[in-house]
Please model this.
Amino acid sequence: MMGGMWWSGPGGLVWFLIYAVLVVVPFWRLLPRFGIPNWVALVAIFPLGALILLWVMAFRDELGGRRG
Model:
């Protein structure tokens, strides 16, 4: 056995990129509808950042970006 985590090594970078694409792309498309710039979707790469973005989106009243 090589003794390492499954995400270590060059294969780990591939899994990270797959994760990043699967999480960032939906945020990239949804955030402008909530009045938030596209580039903020890059925060979603980190799990806590994705949770914060979901929280912000959940408490927006309208898709126009106005707060309640």
